[in-house]
Amino acid sequence: MPMIKSHRMVFAIEKCAELGVRRIIPFRCERSVWKGGEKESRKKQERLERKVAAACKQSGNPWFTKIEPVAPFAGLVESLKDYSSIFLADAGGGPFYSTFGMLKEPHDMIAVVGPEGGFTESEMEGFETAGAVKVSLGLNRLRSETSAFLMASGMILCIADLKG
Fold this sequence. Notes:
alpha/beta; single chain; 6 helices; three-stranded parallel β-sheet; two-stranded parallel sheet
C-alpha cells in the first residue's frame, strides 16, 4: 500500500486487518505522500500496529496483520519475486471477478494499489517486469484506501471459495 494521507492510511489498514490480510507493505513511490525520516517512520508504524491490534481483536481475526517497515519502491518491486500471484489495481486490467477467479491456490499472493494520482510510467514498467496481473476495480476512479479494501475483499472471498 502506498503511503497516503494518515487518516486514509489508518482506515485502509484497519479494514484490511478486519478482513484478515496477513501482511501490509507500506511503500514510497513518486506520487505517494511521505513526510518525515526514520524516527517519524517508526512512530507511524507503531501507531498502525496499535490500530491493527484493535481491528483484529474487534473482528475476531486469529492473527495480527504484520505491518512491514516503509519500503522504497525498488524494494517493493524486488520483494514481488517472493509471490506466485501479483495483482495490481489498474483501470486497464481484466474484470475483477474473472481475474480473481484465476486463483488456484490461496497462498503466496500479493495485491498492490496505487497512490492518489496513480503510478508513473516507469513504476508501471516495474510491475509489468515482475509479472503483475492488472485488475480493474470498476468504472469509477477510487481512492487508494477504497482500492485496498476492495482488492483485499476480492482475494479473501475467492480464497474462501477455494477452501469451500
